[in-house]
Specification:
The chain is mainly α. It has a domain at 34-89. The chain has helices at 13-19, 21-27, 34-38, 49-56, 70-79. The radius of gyration is 15 Å and the shape is globular. The mean pLDDT is 86. The structure holds iron/sulfur cluster. The site of iron/sulfur cluster has 12 residues, from α3. Residues 35-36, 39, 41-42, 45-47, 63, 66, 68-69 line the site of iron/sulfur cluster.
Length: 89
């Protein structure tokens, strides 16, 4: 999925921020998955969507860098057995 916003020369930052369908969807906290979606801190936090996208290719997935998603972190670590010499965090 291409997440690249339109070229900035054609649109002002706030126009892109407010009207990009992908950025609007990314900010919609009620669509976050698993614990991030029900977390009491989701309005202020919401997790690191860039990290989530890098790990899962889905920016609505739970953030494995948060203690509240510890189970997701350990699942990722277990599935990365071939990278056992690298640190996942
Ligand atoms: S990253 Fe952690 S604190 Fe932030 S919304 Fe997700 S579960 Fe809540």
């Amino acid at each position: 999925m291409d997440l690249t916003p339109p070229p900035s020369k054609e649109k002002e930052f706030f126009d892109i921020w407010n009207n990009s369908p992908i950025l609007r969807e990314m900010r919609r906290r009620e669509d976050l998955e698993e614990y991030c979606g029900e977390c009491e801190h989701k309005s202020a936090c919401g997790g690191t969507r860039a990290r989530v996208y890098a790990y899962f290719g889905d920016y609505k997935a739970p953030d494995p860098g948060c203690i509240n998603n510890e189970e997701v972190f350990f699942e990722l670590r277990a599935s990365a057995g071939e990278f056992k010499n690298e640190v996942l965090y």
